[in-house]
Amino acid sequence: MFTYILLDCLSKMNAERTVSGVYHLLRGKKSSQTFQDAKVYRIEGYYGIYPDLQRETLDHALHELCKEGKTVWHDHGRMSVTAYGQGSMEETHMPLYFSGLEYSEAVEEFKNRLMLWIQIISNAVYRHAGYLPIVDKGPVQTWARKFYSERKAVLDEEAPILYKELRALLTPFSDTEKEMFVRRLTGGDRSGWTYSQLAEESGEPAWDIPLYLTNMYYYMFSEVSSDSSSYLYKLTEDLVKKEAFTSSSGKSIALYNKFGSIEKVAKIRQLQPSTIEDHLVEAVLVDPARNIDAFISREGARDISAAVRKTSTKRLKVIREQLNGDYSYFQIRIVLAKLQKGQG
Amino acid sequence: MEPINVKKVLEDQFKFSEFRPGQENVIENALRGVDTLAILPTGSGKSLCYQLPSLILPGLTIVVSPLISLMIDQVKQVKAKGMKRVAALHSFLSPQQKRKISGNLRKLDLIYISPEMLQMPKMKSLLKRETISLFVVDEAHCISQWGHEFRTDYLKLHQVISDLGEPPVLALSATATPEVQEDILFQLGRTGACKLIYPMDKPNIQLGVAEIENEQEKRRFLIDFLSRQKAPAMIYFSSRQMAEKVSLELKANSLGRIAYYHGGMDPVDRQLVQQQFMNNELDIVCCTSAFGMGIDKSDIRIVIHYHLPPRIESFIQEIGRAGRDGGECTSLLLYAPGDERLPQMFIQSELPSHEQIDAFLRFCYANEKTPSYEDCMHLELSESQYNFLIANAGDKDFSLQATARETADKLKERQLLRTEQKQNHLIHMMEVINTPGCRRKDLYRHFQEGFQTPHQKCCDHCHPEIFQVTYESVKERQGLPLWEERLYNIFHARSSYGQ
């Protein structure tokens, strides 16, 4: 799964970004650049789905792909997918449920809540007191304490309900995935398994295990959060879609809407004008219907669109050269942002 | 305080029917407000000595602890026992979390705090408003330059205690030579404190040192030895890679349920390995010294050292994790000629070289200030090298060029002294390996006169047959159920799956 996702990202990025871009994307880096890459290259689903990814793991996987002839290196840390690599992707069919840009934080929280809640409810059923919580993140524990105090009287009745719901939610997955999911859980008289133990048991590569599990949690999250009659709905109701902008961008955009001047916003916010430009590009990425007339003439936008088509790249430098340097990078970026839906 | 009261708290809160040796006397002192230095061997339940009094004493009990991970583990475990008025304050917390805890001090019985947090003026003034019933210095040997884990910020504890109005002090350690014990009390300004020193030797452990030709033979010996065991065992390594590598090799030889553990793993995974070992879902853990701090497993039968420990203190601490239930247990140290080179290299990397000392001072004098760790990046100092320089350069007036040479000379002298001390620790460890006589005698002689009569066999020199020992305490568990049954069992207490 990991190598499939890498190939997908690399092929969509078309060697226009370095592999570090993939690394930041999968780890969910909170930066304008990562956010824009996710949107422009249509790989936003993968945003933040592998927050614990280590750089060495990525490098190792890329090295393997290269050795197998599925990818080739270009200069400056960029990599593209070979025809053989493309072919191998088409052979792989696996349903992926990721929608990271919107939900990576919500699903991460949901995953931790569910693992901890299963441990709590199971220990209640087994009448075990005094155990170490499997998730030691503060906010998750605070949530669990509150949730527990509301329902400690009815845990025995709720356990079979949760059991049936989980069983049903596991239906679309393969036996290997089901085994992985269930073995990772701590409860009753057994502890959950580590990633390396799950890898060994399933015969799948260790770097795939977190992704398999996360993919399942995305599916479960989308099922239960849209069904208020489900038991697990209660674990998701306060978890919201990520805000469209980073909070800093949101501020700049609001100020720009008010004053209509990049320089003024930069002065108020004490930021570089180029940073404000980044934020405005973000605004167009999120809402391609947004009017860009203030930044470029209709004619200029047409010129840039034509150049993008002609060069079939999203590399700013190449586009700008094609246009003989007539337009600024900012103008090209804002038109690219506007074009996103019409591309690919 | 009525003794009967204390016993009841022990039973109700800690679910123990009796005290382990030493605990009762230390608790009595704590409740009476007597300054105390207590040396209790690893596995004797040191933390209970302040956790229990904290429930009875009217005010707040402060525990200074050197390792944040240790603090977090302790709080988790105390909370699992049902004590809720407990918290830990350290630099890993967010500002909001810190504020929340420090704003609620009055609601707490027990607070763990890192020494650097304790130095903060704001923290001190908050604590000054509270009644401090007991000031606990955990791992007190860290205050002594002669101890094996010297921490400079421990040196400032004397001042903190006095700022807090001289509350009663309880200094605790598992490993302190008589020399270090004196130094602890001197540094804390408590030379008149009551000393409760309990013997460090473990009469239920058998000590074996296997001298082996080379690395490959080590592996063969290990596999052969473990193939005769069915009991909880720990194997210590000094490198993460080796812990992983050997664990895979042991697994390939079907030697039971085996996992590895080290500080570089995912936090949930670490928690899972600990729990599996505690619940007897694992037989063998291949680990670095990061494992064990929070482990309170009573039935570990075997502790093996694959690499040579750099000091007797760490060795004693690690073998102390075996046989806490009082039953027979065995320590096995695997030694191949040249193994001392690895700890030698560690010693060099812990202290700055003479060139680094000179460069560091040039930097200080040029900038007329003590640089932060980040400032020193270009000097390529390890954290412990930096700490050494800061602690020993002291608060100099860096505008005076005249003292530059003096400071350099002093630092170099200290560096030589520290290197020599560390070398001595290693030499002591090597003496245990090379002794033609009783290993027990050699191991404990730096800490105490003599030792208790061993319950079973003593060491491989007294009883060469101890390498033939076998343990069979692990029961075969039923095979793994498939996911459906396992899922059912999580939510249904009586395993009636399929009926």
TrEMBL record, chain A:
InterPro entries: Helicase_HTH, YpbB-like. Residues 251-336 form the Helicase Helix-turn-helix domain. It comes from the Bacteria. This is Uncharacterized protein YpbB. It comes from Salimicrobium album.
From TrEMBL, chain B:
PANTHER family: ATP-DEPENDENT DNA HELICASE RECS-RELATED, DNA HELICASE RECQ FAMILY MEMBER. CDD domains: DEXHc_RecQ. The keyword Glycosyltransferase does not apply. SUPFAM superfamilies: P-loop containing nucleoside triphosphate hydrolases (SSF52540). It holds the Pfam family DEAD. Keywords: ATP-binding, DNA-binding, Helicase, Hydrolase, Nucleotide-binding. InterPro entries: DEAD/DEAH_box_helicase_dom, DNA/RNA_helicase_DEAH_CS, DNA_helicase_ATP-dep_RecQ, Helicase_ATP-bd, Helicase_C-like, P-loop_NTPase. Gene3D superfamilies: P-loop containing nucleotide triphosphate hydrolases. PROSITE patterns: DEAH_ATP_HELICASE, HELICASE_ATP_BIND_1, HELICASE_CTER. The keyword Aminoacyl-tRNA synthetase does not apply. GO terms for molecular function: helicase activity. This is ATP-dependent DNA helicase RecQ. Transmembrane segments: none annotated. Residues 27-194 form the Helicase ATP-binding domain. Residues 221-378 form the Helicase C-terminal domain.
